[in-house]
Specification:
single chain, about 450 residues, alpha+beta, Pdz3 Domain, 2-enoyl-CoA Hydratase, Chain A, domain 1, six-stranded antiparallel β-sheet, six-stranded mixed β-sheet, 13 helices
């Protein structure tokens, strides 16, 4: 079936983070909506008859559909043939282009994250950047599909991007040479002291199996003695719900991983440990999970599960806060509806919608010279127009209560560079693990639930 592989790749290009769900129900149209449909048809007829220029039917119908979904939330969308074709080109994770995950926000093309090692990444394009011009041509107000099509091209060709970076007074112009993008969902390396680092860049197919293999490779390199592990989920925009469950299950031996609750009966699903993998593959090994404002959806499921079960120490910055589930629903052979159908909850019953996952230890990325400006203009789910509201009505200012300067985090980016530290958050996590013993917080037992 055409849509099966699309579910694996849609998260990379269509939204901040897409978690495909497999169930959907059709709701009956309320008979009281008939007058509203009459209004819609009346507007359609009036535009066809009176607009200054002839308008094709498909343009008006597509506009009505887009407007309908835009009234819901930032993650629901209609995908026509060209959108689906764009997804199909990424199924194999091999295409020519810049290597960017982007989303359309208020008419502007916003960078969710550059893929690690891609031409865009090497050119210095960062998460949160807005692309306003391509080769001097304004793309603001256009479609995301057109913008992505222009950024694609043969390997070796170049394109000039004009970028607005929040906090900068002047736009940036960056020449980027397109290359062959070979997506690597999982990478790993063994650091000094036999501390492993596994980076998960996105939750595509087989991520759970890839992480398991990466850990076994690290064990071989360390002659079986892994003294600590960093699971890096920073700037991971999400992906497959099943793979987020599989990844969390690699480190958990019992209990809930995540629950999905929707309006329809079939959209309420519980996911438990020991359903994908048996046992804790890294039993006895201290674990730190790194997150930041670019960690969304599937990344938040993993971080939330490991945090609630006290299996890992969560470190970095508060995550994006996307606690909703999108289903990809086929609408014929060349169209689909990406619709928000449920919310998800961590094992303790927390919804991360708007609030995100708060790290156990907040560690700023001091090695980023634009840190102060980036924090000032950081965009999260709660900043998106039309986002779903958290049921408990939590406010952003209530999530950022501690404004005291931590004496551990006073070095500047220049000072860190002089010390050879290019990634302060990762450096801090590694140093923490090198000082970690089995009695520390990363392995403290989860509290038992009280029985009433």
């Amino acid at each position: 079936m055409k849509f099966a592989p699309l579910l694996r790749s849609a998260a990379l290009v269509t939204a901040v983070a897409l978690i495909p769900a497999t169930t959907a129900t059709m709701a009956e149209v309320d008979g009281r909506a008939a007058p509203e449909f009459a209004k819609l048809f009346a507007v359609f007829q009036r535009v066809k008859a009176s607009y200054v220029e002839p308008v094709d039917d498909d343009v008006l119908i597509r506009g009505a559909i887009d407007g309908m979904l835009a009234a819901l939330d930032p993650h629901s969308a209609y995908l026509d043939g060209s959108d689906l074709q764009r997804l199909e080109t990424m199924i194999d994770g091999n295409y020519s282009g810049l290597g960017l995950s982007v989303v359309l926000e208020d008419g502007a093309v916003k960078v969710v994250s550059p893929f690690k090692g891609s031409p865009a990444d090497k050119a210095g394009i960062k998460a949160g950047d807005f692309i306003t011009h391509l080769d001097g041509k304004l793309i603001y107000g256009g479609s995301l599909d057109d913008a992505v099509a222009q950024m694609r091209g043969p390997s070796g060709s170049s394109i000039k991007l004009t970028i607005y970076r929040p906090g900068r007074d002047e736009p940036l112009e960056v020449d980027v040479t397109r290359g062959v993008i070979e997506l690597e969902p999982v990478t790993s390396e063994l650091d000094s002291g036999n501390v492993g680092v596994i980076t998960v860049n996105e939750f595509s197919a087989d991520v759970g199996a890839d992480v398991f293999k990466a850990y076994q490779d690290l064990r071989k390199q360390a002659a079986g003695r892994i003294n600590g592990l960093v699971l890096d989920l920073r700037n991971n925009p999400g992906g497959s719900l099943d793979e987020s469950v599989a990844l969390a299950d690699l480190f958990l031996t019992d209990g809930r991983i995540v629950s999905q609750r929707g309006r329809a009966r079939g959209e309420t699903i519980l996911y438990d440990a020991e359903t994908k993998y048996r046992g804790d593959m890294a039993e006895g090994v201290p674990l730190i999970v790194l997150i930041n404002a670019g960690s969304a959806s599937a990344s938040e499921i993993v971080a939330g599960a490991l945090q609630d079960h006290r299996r890992a120490l969560i470190m970095g910055e508060r995550s994006f806060g996307k606690g909703s589930v999108q289903s990809l629903l086929p609408l014929g052979p060349d169209a689909a509806l990406k619709l928000t159908t449920a919310r998800y909850y961590t094992p303790s019953g927390r919804s991360v919608q708007e609030g995100g996952i708060k790290p156990d230890i907040a560690v700023p990325q001091l090695s980023d010279p634009d840190l102060a400006l980036r924090e000032k203009y950081q965009t999260r789910e709660s900043d998106l127009r039309g986002h779903l509201v958290n049921e408990i009505g939590i406010k952003d200012e209530e999530l950022e209560t501690d404004k005291n300067v931590d004496p551990r985090f006073k070095l500047t980016a220049a000072e860190l560079k002089d010390e050879g530290i290019e990634d302060f958050q990762l450096h801090y996590a590694l140093e923490t693990l090198r000082r970690t013993t089995k009695s520390t917080v990363a392995l403290r037992p989860a509290p038992r639930a009280s029985k009433n």
